Amino acid sequence: MKTIFRICILWLLMATSAEAAPADLPRRMLAETNIARTNPGRYAGYIKEFKGRFVGKAYRMPGSAAMVLTSEGVPALDEAIKFLSRQRPVPELSWSPGLAKAAADLVREQSSTGDTGHDGESSGDLRERIERHGTWTGGIAENIGYGPDTARLMVMELIIDDGVQDRGHRKNIFNSSYRTAGAACGPHPRYRNMCVMEFAVGYKSR
Asked: Which pTM value belongs to this model?
């Protein structure tokens, strides 16, 4: 059975002083995602350290006075740490140029419009974007994060999945069925930065 999943997460920024995201952020996103998949305990350590930045339900952005307001606060981090301590390693994801192009379609549109979510007016929905650049088998999924300008912070936020009841981003990251992925990142008018990652069980790029 073919399956499609769509998950996005928004950050509420209380301040927005930050440098532009680096051009290689998409590749770093894949590298950090693979670290999490193959060594969940290492990411548990990152999140434990991250807890020290919290004041109530907000935390301070590294190297700035900016604060990010979360929905759940520290309990979401504790729940993620507990999950990671029990999670078994899963295989690394390979880089897919076609999936990266599909992700870039949505980033390009939302960088201009300031919209959020998985359905683009010009780029289409998840399936349309992925099928525009290749052929998929088995299942596909999409994670979208808004806010962080480093790969590690973005992947941590997607694993913590603050405010997402079913922790759908996390499920996509640790789904052992997915074997390939592509990502794209860019500026966002409302949330400073955004990254999109597309996952597939199997994918043949055009």
From this structure: 0.89
